[in-house]
Amino acid sequence: MPEIKCKARLVQKMTTTPPLIYLKNLFSFLFERYQVSESFCYNTFINVGFSRYNLYAIITSACSSFKWVDLYAIATCTSWGICISFHAALLFDPTCFRRIATKMKLSMRTFYVANFVMHVLPCIITLCFRVRYIFWWHGWIASAIHLSWGCIRSRGTMCLDELYVPMTRNAWYFMWTVSVVTEIIVSLSPTGLLQK
């Protein structure tokens, strides 16, 4: 009987706790047992843009000598979707990069270096180390993962004002559309462009 009550409390906790707080509670043993800084985990894995997860996938693929072809194919799609949609924000708000740099307390030079590393470099890597194969479904999976992250991170609004800077709802929807279309188009790229 106590086991049923415990499961009921866990289900209630999962449904009433925002996802980020739930993840924090789920991995609290790391903070206690291994003395991992809570702010380090939060700022490294939870309170980050999707480009950080994409960079982790690219690094994982590179460390495996690009043997995990499906992971690398999906990361190839998301790399291009992230890069193009991030820079598409300039069409709606030419000041958004300066506002992001100000919010992050970075100089514009540092912001451009970070932008290059997080958004442009993964695309260059996919051009230098072409994926062995890429199919249409890699693009759909990439889009589904990216949209799922956006939905969870924004709590269903798809507006990431809290993570980046405030922009109009139309701007956010435009950037999401650009991302999805790019990820699908990349998966349809002809042999030789992005694949061996």
How would you describe the overall organization of this protein?
This protein is mainly alpha-helical. Helices cover 72% and strands 0% of the residues. It is built from ten helices and no strands.
Number of helices: 10
Oligomer: single chain
List how many beta strands DSSP finds. Answer: 0
Task: Give start-end ranges of low-pLDDT stretches.
Answer: 1-17
**Main sheet?**
none
**β-sheet strand percentage:** under 5%
The class by helix and strand makeup works out as mainly alpha
Number of self-contained structural domains: 2
Rounded to the nearest angstrom, the radius of gyration is 19 Å
End-to-end Cα distance = 59 Å
Query: Whole-number average pLDDT?
Result: 82
Portion in helices: over 70%
SSE string? HHHHHHHHHH
Q: Outline, from the CA principal axes?
A: globular
Quick take:
By secondary structure, the protein is an all-alpha fold. The protein has helices at residues 2-16, 19-26, 28-33, 38-46, 50-63, 69-92, 96-103, 108-128, 136-153, 169-187.
Which descriptors would you attach to this protein?
single chain, 196 residues, mainly alpha, 2 domains, 10 helices, globular
